[in-house]
Design brief:
The complex is a heterodimer of chains A (110) and B (324). By secondary structure, chain A is mainly α. In chain A, 82% of the residues lie in helices and 0% in strands. Chain A is globular, with a radius of gyration of 16 Å. Chain B is elongated. The chains are: A mainly alpha (110), B alpha+beta (324). Chain A: Belongs to the sbp family.
């Protein structure tokens, strides 16, 4: 419950305060958000499976974000930034879908 | 979100046994329930459970954990083990949502989700504004920037010229005379454009001789457009001054320009930069080659002094008056 509140408060603060993102971080923000979403879906599924562990969740969340940003950074340096970030989004999207399917099976039993 | 460690002290989970009576005796046997419950803690070490362990681990955990609440109730302190209880994912979710519990896990997850929500909101905000340039490619952006730079440069030049005029108007001892001078200057410039005053300057003379009569009005028009594109400032063809609304017609008796009959040789007197005008006519596939294909000869002569002295009458508009 508190976790859900954290998400809601985050969205509200982001919309109200309008923080300025430093331009160096700007290209990595969208991919980091998608990676974090993947971690969140994975955590939700783990919770429904009864194997949720907060330490694992924290580590996976942070490492997902860092690795995704690193891949984009590397892609930018190699000149294939757009393609590589597309690839990252596709992979994360597949994972999100499979996690969502598992969650759906738990919640709706279907 | 819930976590395994608060299961033992969680009343709702313990109070929701699934009706599977025939399993109950089996689960009482502690040695049997322990090993069966063990697969669960192992995937806990994995960040996100992979699809493979999921179908195997979940039914096993469900089947075993379902009857657990009854027998486990006396042994409450020890099942701090993960996957000890929790009947189904749905119940786990509801239990995690309500009642809210303040635990370390909840707080860390809340902090991370706060960061996620913040990032999400910022990204959505920044994507929703100035979307016209956002999707543009890098080369397009560079081109747009260059165009803007050029335009800014031109406007700066124009501004500087106008500021000079204003300074002269303001500082000149005889302001009326200065204003008159500038107005006359402006009138002369406009007169050259409108064809109402004669003009002179460097340029070229283009003579088209056409013994076979193959040159028609469209060819002359092409020639004129080519000259204009190359920066011609004042043009006269034979005795007709060419201005913005000049037109060519092709009749049975030959070519007419603005209604005046012109006969060959067609002599174009053009004021402009000679080193721009002559190559523009001589480019491969250009005016000169086209004329030669029509068995006409074109002769281009550069000159430092071309006089364009054919005039057009300045027409007073009947109804329109200057509003100043």
């Amino acid at each position: 419950m508190i976790a859900v509140l954290g998400l809601v408060v985050g969205v509200v603060v982001g919309l109200v305060v309008r923080p300025v993102v430093p331009s160096g971080v700007e290209p990595y923000l969208p991919i980091a958000v998608v990676a974090a979403l993947d971690a969140v879906f994975g955590g939700l599924r783990a919770m429904l499976d009864g194997i949720f562990d907060d330490k694992v969740f924290v580590v996976s969340f942070l490492s997902n974000v860092v690795v995704a940003a690193l891949i984009v950074f590397l892609g930018d340096k190699l000149g294939v930034g757009a393609q590589l970030s597309t690839g990252v989004v596709v992979v994360l999207g597949i994972r999100i879908f499979s996690n969502a399917a598992a969650i759906r099976r738990h919640v709706f039993r279907a | 979100m819930s976590e395994e460690h608060d299961h033992p002290d969680r009343p709702p989970a313990a109070a929701t046994p699934e009706p599977e009576p025939e399993r109950e005796p089996k689960a009482v046997a502690t040695p049997e329930s322990r090993p069966a419950a063990e697969p669960a803690p192992e995937p806990a070490a994995v960040p996100e459970p992979r699809p493979a362990p999921e179908p195997a681990a979940t039914p096993a955990a469900k089947a075993v954990s379902a009857p657990e609440p009854g027998p486990q109730a006396p042994a409450a302190p020890e099942p701090a083990e993960p996957a000890a209880a929790a009947p189904s994912g749905r119940q786990r979710l509801l239990a995690g949502l309500w009642p809210p519990r303040l635990s370390r896990a909840q707080l860390t997850v809340a902090v991370l989700l706060f960061a996620l929500g913040l990032g999400l909101a910022i990204q959505v905000r920044s994507t929703s504004d100035n979307s016209a340039l956002r999707g543009a490619r890098q080369e397009d952006l560079v081109r747009i920037l260059t165009e803007l730079d050029n335009r800014g440069q031109r406007l700066q030049d124009e501004k500087r010229g106008l500021e000079n005029q204003r300074t002269q108007l303001e500082t000149s001892s005889d302001q009326a005379a200065e204003a008159l001078k500038q107005t006359r200057q402006k009138a002369r410039e406009l007169g050259v454009l409108a064809g109402t005053v004669a003009a002179q300057g460097p340029g070229i003379t283009l003579t088209i001789t056409d013994p076979h009569g193959g040159v028609e009005a469209d060819t002359l028009l092409d020639t004129l457009q080519e000259l204009r594109a190359a920066g011609a400032e004042a043009i006269q063809i034979n005795d007709v001054r060419v201005v913005a609304d000049t037109y060519f017609t092709q009749g049975a008796d030959g070519v007419r320009i603005d209604g005046h009959k012109v006969t060959q040789p067609y002599r174009f007197k053009v004021i402009g930069s000679p080193q721009d005008l002559e190559p523009a006519l001589n480019i491969p596939g250009g005016v000169v080659q086209t004329l030669e294909k029509q068995q006409a000869t074109a002769d281009v002569v550069r000159s430092q002094k071309i006089v364009v002295d054919a005039l057009r009458p300045s027409e007073q508009p009947d109804y329109a008056r200057s509003s100043r």
